Amino acid sequence: MEHQHVNQQIVNRLSRLEGHVRSIKEMVASGRDCAEVLVQMAAVRSALDRAGYAILEDHLEHCIGEAVDEGKGQQAVEDLKKALKRFIG
């Protein structure tokens, strides 16, 4: 898939997530049932993880390959390892 197209898909996902988080905030402000709020928060967490996976996949397919071609592959892999540690927790 074209890199720019994937970026737009990720931006679209994040926009939907932004709206979903805003809805959860409104649920809390209006005193909605805690169980409902937690279910919606779990859905956001899952969607955020999927967006992160899409970013990782795109990075592996495009950025790492380019770095290898430019002789910077080892540094790119080290940077990715650091980012993965933070993302995974």
Q: Summed up, what is this model?
A:
This protein is mainly α and 89 residues long. The chain has helices at residues 3-29, 34-69, 73-88.
Describe this structure in words.
The protein has 89 residues and is mainly alpha-helical. It contains three helices and no strands. The chain has helices at 3-29, 34-69, 73-88. The chain is elongated and about 55 Å long. The chain starts with a helix and ends with a helix. The mean pLDDT is 92.
Approximate shape: elongated
What structural class is derived from the secondary structure elements? Answer: mainly alpha
> Proportion of β residues?
under 5%
Q: In terms of quaternary structure, what is this?
A: single chain
Helicity level, as a percent range?
A: over 70%
Mean pLDDT level:
92
Order of helices and strands: HHH
| Number of DSSP helical runs | 3
Rounded to the nearest angstrom, the distance between the terminal CA atoms is 29 Å
Uncertain parts = none
- According to DSSP, the number of beta strands is 0
Compute the gyration radius: what is it?
17 Å
Largest sheet: none
Question: Which labels suit this protein?
Answer:
single chain, 89 residues, mainly alpha
Mind sketching the topology for me?
Elements: H1 3-29, H2 34-69, H3 73-88
Helix pairs in contact: 1-2, 2-3
